[in-house]
Amino acid sequence: MLSTLQKLGLTEKEARVYLASLELGSAKIPEIAKKSKIKRTTVYVILESLMQKGLVSYYQSKESKKFIAEEPERLQSLLKERQEALLQIMPQLSALIKGKEEKRPEVRFYLGKEGCLSIVEQTLEVKNSEILYLGSIVDIYKIVTPEYDYNHYIPARMEKNIKFTALVFADLGANKLKQDEAKFLRTIKYLPQEYFFSSSMFIFQDKIACLSSEKELIGVVIQSSDLAQMERQKFKLLWDKL
């Protein structure tokens, strides 16, 4: 429970004092200190902090001041308040990023099928754009599946008017994609089979995404305008040669 409360924004000592107070009911500072195993002077400061968060209150008895933890439902309210506060400043945070003239290059690594799938989803982020693809359709289908492609990816891509230009090896998957090219906003050329490889590359926006085969299931996304432009030019050079 301590780790969960810390994820909600409490410090370790705040979490310990809150749990001790919750278990004790109404209690004096010495009792809370003993239960939480924290010094009295520190407990007093922590209780002040918890009261500001609305997680603890107190009342004055004949003997002394007694503290009582609020119901756990208050934690839900606290989380909701923080989410609402974050939503309020999201436009300003986004503006800070968009306001930069240049983005710093980034390299991100992804693992497993879910990680690789999230990379493929990134290619759909910008409307009226173009995706360049290099690789094996049969092997990429072992990761994202034909069902995902036909039931989700292609409809989403077409709805956003995103073109798909691909250099692929001739196989059953590629031959099927070759059909109705214009209808599905895609153009395909075949790579020489003697140069076969099972990995895939997507070039889109200012990003290059490389996905390994199903055997390794790793993906890398490089966000760099310079590198994306270089790979785009290499792709077009290869395209023109075929």
Give a structural overview:
With 242 residues, the protein is an alpha+beta fold. It is 51% helix and 21% strand. The chain has two domains: 71 residues, Arc Repressor Mutant, subunit A; 136 residues, Endonuclease Chain A (Endonuclease, Chain A, 2-Layer Sandwich). The protein has ten helices and nine strands. The strands form two sheets. A seven-stranded mixed β-sheet has the order 3-9-8-7-4-5-6, with helices on both faces. Strands 1-2 form a two-stranded antiparallel sheet. Helix 9 links the parallel strand 5 and strand 6. The chain is elongated. The model has no long low-confidence stretch (mean pLDDT 88).
List keywords for this structure.
Endonuclease, Chain A; Arc Repressor Mutant, subunit A; 10 helices; alpha+beta; 9 strands
State the share of residues found in helices, binned by percent.
40-55%
Quaternary state reads single chain
Order of helices and strands: HHHHEEHEHEHHEHEEEEH
SS element count, helices: 10
**Share of residues in strands:** 15-25%
Task: Calculate the terminal CA-CA distance, rounded to whole Å.
Answer: 61 Å
CATH architecture group name of the largest domain: 2-Layer Sandwich
CATH topology of the largest domain: Endonuclease, Chain A
Number of strands: 9
Which SSEs are present, and which pair or pack?
Blueprint: H1 2-7, H2 12-24, H3 29-36, H4 40-52, E1 56-60, E2 65-69, H5 73-98, E3 106-111, H6 112-122, E4 130-135, H7 137-144, H8 146-159, E5 163-169, H9 172-178, E6 186-191, E7 200-204, E8 207-211, E9 218-223, H10 225-241
Parallel strand pairs: 4-5, 5-6
Antiparallel strand pairs: 1-2, 3-9, 4-7, 7-8, 8-9
Helix pairs in contact: 2-3, 2-4, 3-4
